[in-house]
Amino acid sequence: MANLKIQTKSAPAALGAYSQAVRAGSSVYISGQLGLEPGSNFLSPNFVDQAAQALKNIEVILKEADSRLDNVVKFTIFMTDLSNFEDLNELMGKLFINDYFPARSVVEASRLPKNALIEIDAIASH
Question: Which of 21, 23, 38, 48 could link 4 by a cystine bridge, Cβ 3.0 to 4.6 Å?
Answer without folding.
Answer: 23
